[in-house]
Batch of 3 targets.
Target 1
Amino acid sequence: MSATSNVQTVPDYLSGFMGPVPNEIEAFDLKVEGALPPELDGLYVRNGANPLPGTDPGHSFTGHGMVHGVRLNRGHAAWYRNKWVQTPALHGARSVRADGTRDLTASTANTSVLGYDGKIFALVENCLPFALTDNLDTVGPYDFGGALKGPMTAHPKLDPATGRLHFFGYDFRPPFLQYHVATADGRILRSVPISVTGPTMMHDFAVTEHYIAWLDMPVVFDLSRIGKPGMAYRWSDDYPTRIGVMPHDSSDADVRWFVVQPGYAFHVGNAHEDTQGRIVLEAVNYDRTSFNSLWKELGGYSVLSESDTKKKPVGGAFYRWTLDPATGQVSEAALDDLAVEFPTISAAKAGRPNRFTYAVNTPLLTERDGARIVKYDTQTGARAEHELGRDWVPGEAIFVPAQQSSAEDHGWLVSIVTHANADRANLLVQDASDPQLKPVAAVALPRRVPGGFHGAWIDRSH
């Protein structure tokens, strides 16, 4: 008679390079290999889920938010610190109260970082933003002076020409989607409900100079999954995949919907209007199999067979949709076959034609050794890449323009890269204009930084 094992398997999202760290630390005068560009005067902040020690949130997306920051100044790395975002949820509050109403401050605040209205914000898509100081201390929730009554996306879009902030909030209860526009100083100008097919998980959207593009895609809230392991969102074969195009100052009735091939995009690279007035939208797109494989590894419910979910997941592909509001025609195609995530661009090109998009390939997305940071030339179709050493895992690379930059890619890529098997991490700075994305500096951080989500460069040169 064999003994029954009581050993519990640690989920992937709580182990390896994704495993959380147990505490907050800080360190000063960090060691730099190479030379930091003296013009980089500011703060790099990256957000991610980091559950409290001994807890399992059930999914990679639902752990409490922890921000990691590195202060660069005049060629020096002044400090590193990491801090949990101090929200009511961190101390046990639930987002749905006993009476069924929502507490929009009970946030994990774990997804992204935004510099806006002279402040730094930690964002998650089901609650309000939380303001932080430059030292990463939590100030508290931000509701645009009481005007925001619902959740805010973790992927708002700042218009580089007007300074306006475009954002939305989605919910599993009607209205499923609300669109908002705010001024550069935090005043909401308009809020408009948008009709979608159902309770879709709309993680991102796109904004061009004159249009909004909505991603109504088949990952939806499933009431039957409440109380079960993982998130209550799953892929639905019955939900149509659509992209909606709406002029900025219009309403729900003016959305033109385009039916596209089944797929799901967590993250948009950019969108713009071409010379024919068509909307060109680029994102990382997952088909049914690639989404469900990744979702299972992150702790979510998958509709794939057990044999399929045991395969190493293959991530989404850099993808383009071209939508013609005049004719209703749409064309779409993958632009590359490399599994990538976290597409980023120069903020100055947001909503306008851009030539270069940056992304990362990580062990979570592919079986290939040698994770890499890549640069796409969307005019020529070329892909440049910098391959990291074995066991190094890249995070999202943020583009920081050089002072008096003369070209779209004249600047630096800043990211945190972490070691999969050792207590090590670096802040990596690369020359974005170099054909091989040559690193110019690596700042040795005092600990491993878990694989996380999104970051931002907060300029402090003025």
Target 2
Amino acid sequence: MENWRLLDLGALQPLEAQTLYEAVAIALDKGLAPSTVILCNPAKPYACLGFHQEIETEIDIEFCQKHDLPIIRRSQGGGATYLDSDQQFYQVIADEKSPVVPYAVNDFFQKFLQATVHACNCLGVPATYKPINDVVVNGRKISGNGAGKTGKAAVLVGNIILDLDYDSMTRVLKVPDEKFRDKLAKSIREWVTSLKQELGYVPPRSKIKKLLIEGYEKIGIALVPGTLTYEEKRIFTEEVKPKHLSGEWLYMPEYRHPEIVKKRTIKVAGDVKVVEASHKAKKMIRVTMEIAFNKIRDILISGDFFMVPETALPKLERDLVNVPLNHDDVLRRVKNFYESFKIQTPGIEPEDIAQAITNAAAE
């Protein structure tokens, strides 16, 4: 049994609820903070974007601005979603050298989501873990989760859905037309649930948190109540908050590839063209690519996948420039990249990335 710090922070403003754990992770990486579990919830609703997603493709920006909904890009992968006070967040920030923390991201999810399963089960909800990163009730998601690393800090963030505003969930997402939105709404109602839907009521938040704490104890973690340090507050104020409020962070993939984004809307002549395609493995991969003389001239890879380390994706994009557009050459380059940087992408393999690129080239 290890002693970890518990930060029970209650309701926080959206940016703090979504990103304060990053300051803890940075402090832990510097040796200034212990392994920690944060329990909190958003005080107000917001739209949340996965680390590798394109905001213009995933979020209805105009709707969010009109309804004063902040849009926050998180530091983990996964898909775009709507979050509000009817969520109970848990955020695990752990020293990767701890014997209770698995190295592989898949194993990290599987072990630590036992606490989420425990809390739901004790409330009378028959929840189970569903690889890669969900907790489900009879196949319907009641908890979404993401994971990543910040230096020596292994991070897992997730929620238990207390109640769900299905209309807002579908409205913040970008869709091609209203007919598609109706289909999306039907799908979300079919595949996402909540404690209220399962039980007929929302249990007290204090009880849910108590059960989560019990769940962590069952996997070898004793949580000791603590407080944020001065250094963690400083890191949040001076480093984390400014980053997340910047356009460069919010429009991240587009900032990396301004030319290719601009060329999406124009026709490129001769042996130069811009193409787009998606490939669905266990996670979605989207490729936008400029091709010149059958080689990759520029490439933007996005989607709802996880990549550890998360910041490795731009390196892969640079590695792929000038690679001939045949499957074997692309796959060889992607595999070499995975091996060189010890990349983990739960739910997708190098073959999936190569296939997404091949699909785009065929457009």
Target 3
Amino acid sequence: MSEAMPQSAPAFSVDELLDNFEFLDDWDERYAYLVELGEALPAIPEARRTEENRVKGCMSQVWVSAEQATYKPSTLVYHGDCDTAIIKGVLALLVGLYSGCTPTQIADLDVEDVFDRLGLKENLSPNRHVGVFAIVDLMQQQARELA
């Protein structure tokens, strides 16, 4: 895509994310942490809110786009936005996990296991769970396309 976007190194590793969640005492604190992650996620420009970048299968309006990282072209950087707080938080979590990874690393990351370990699986409604994996599917598809 021709529109330049600011890029940065990945926000966190799986281990850092797990440590952050373990530090929080209960699901209410974890929920608040996800909302904070979402609030910190920069919005993508209107030009990237295309049908191609829209997540299908999610009840929320979600867009995600990937590009090669300028600081390390073999890796990708993701950008996204969402209209609901909790899903935007999960999107921010995924953007943080996937940005800075190669397409192979993205394909190899067991997101289901990460979500289990974070307690997201049992604390998100079934509809949200389906939507979250629609986000993961689109992010992995974009990684394959940029590989």
